[in-house]
Structure formats: C-alpha cells, structure tokens
Amino acid sequence: MAKHGKKYNQASEKIQKGQALPVLEALNKVKQLAYAKFDESVDAHINLGIDASKGEQSVRGSVVLPHGKGKTVTVVVFAKADHADEATKAGADYVGADDLVEKISAGWMDFDYAVATPDMMGIVGKVAKILGPRGLLPNKKVGTVTFDVGETVKELKKGRVFFKNDKQGLVHFSFGKKSFDSKKLEDNLSAFMKALIASKPATSKGKFLKKMTLCSTMGVGVAINPDEFS
Q1: Fold for domain 75-158?
Q2: What architecture is domain 6-69+160-228?
C-alpha cells in the first residue's frame, strides 16, 4: 500500500470518510486542502457502470470547457495546401506533412493535440506507434481527423478536452486549476458531466455513474454524489 507524506495525511484527517458532499462544497474543500506549491489541476475520477472488457461499452468523447483548463495548449496539424493555410490561420502551432513526421520521429513531442485531414492519415501512420501510446494519434471518432481543420483547431485552443474510460471502467478528467474560483470549476465540471452522461453506451444497463471523487493533483479525494448530475 502506498505511503503518503505528512501534508497529505494532515489533509486526509479533515475529510469525513464515507461522506459525499454537495458539488460546490466539495470543490471548496478540494481547494482548501490543496497543499502543493504549484497551481495543481483539479480532477474528477468517476467509476462507471460499464463492462470495460466489451468494446461496445467503451466510453469516449470530448467537451469544450467554458473556462478552459488553465493552460495554453499546443496543436499540430497534418495537412497540405488550402487545409494547411486554414489550420495556420486558425492558430495551429505547427502545420506540416512529411516534415512533421520527421520531426516527431526524431523525438519532438512538445504538443498537446494532433489533428489531420483524412487524406493525410497514410502519412500519419508512419508515427502511429509513437503517437498512439501517448493518446495523441488523430482519431475520427473524437473529431481530430477532419477536413474542417480550422474549426477543430479553434475549439482545441478554446478548451476542447477529450475523455475515455480506462481498463477498470474509470474515467479520469482534469477540468481546471486550483487557482480557478469554485464557480468556474463547477461550470467546467457540469459541462464535462453532461458530455459524459451523453456518451453512455446503449448496451450499458443499470446505474451509469456509480461513484465519484474530486481532488487536486497532490491532494486527497473528496466524494460527491454523482446523482447530482443525472
């Protein structure tokens, strides 16, 4: 069992085990108990009522957070000609084709999102083994393989964030920073939960949102009742 430091243990003592707090109260508690010297992210961890071993019950989607995540994101785009110009005008940080593949193959990974036009996926495939494990491979299902690169880049810059379940049927999602006021965090969390609920697989039966905790990057988990969102 992992051992926690003194500050974590002191914060943990201020949480009543088994008690689920209202959302806004929980967010205030998370901010209050955050002790790291850096501006910690605020995260949600949700246990879903799905069978993660079944592909048809996988949960994935995206959401534009009203107040962003509190960080500047770097977006690269695999595109040519007019689509490359469109991506550049929309604010993409790096636009290319074979040159971008070479750059990534050489070890450059200083970006948060990769977008590609459908006709570029053959080229993107050359670095799929690099991008895939890092969750950076453009994917049609989440909208990062598209000819509408301009709008996609704008949304990513504005705060569109992706989510998906892990092998245990959990979704982990960062929706802001400790420095955000609680109302902004609540707005972001509500937008995310609406998108998460909308992504419920048709084959998933019973209670979809089973358990939910909020915490800062280094902080203790604060339980909330997921039924507040459904």
Answers
A1: Rossmann fold (3.40.50)
A2: 2-Layer Sandwich (3.30)
Beta pairing partners, 114: 76
- The size of the chain, in residues, is 230
CATH topology agreement for domains 6-69+160-228 and 75-158: no
Main-chain phi, psi angles of 168, to 5 degrees: -95, 5
Contacts of residue 100, Cβ cutoff 8 Å, sequence gap at least 6: 76, 78, 94
**Res 112: pLDDT:** 93
The structure's pTM equals 0.78
173: enclosing H helix or E strand: strand 170-177
Using alpha carbons, select from 217, 185, 165, 151 the residue that is nearest to residue 65.
Answer: 185
Confidence at residue 80, expressed as pLDDT on a 0 to 100 scale: 96
3-state secondary structure of 151: helix
Distance CA 223, CA 230 (A): 16
C-alpha 195 chain-centroid distance: 12
Phi, psi angle pair for 5, to nearest 5°: -75, 175
Extents of the domains making up the chain: 6-69+160-228, 75-158
pLDDT at 1: 42
**Mean pLDDT of each 10-residue bin along the chain, 230 residues long:** 62 70 93 91 96 90 88 94 97 97 96 96 96 92 92 91 92 94 96 95 90 93 89
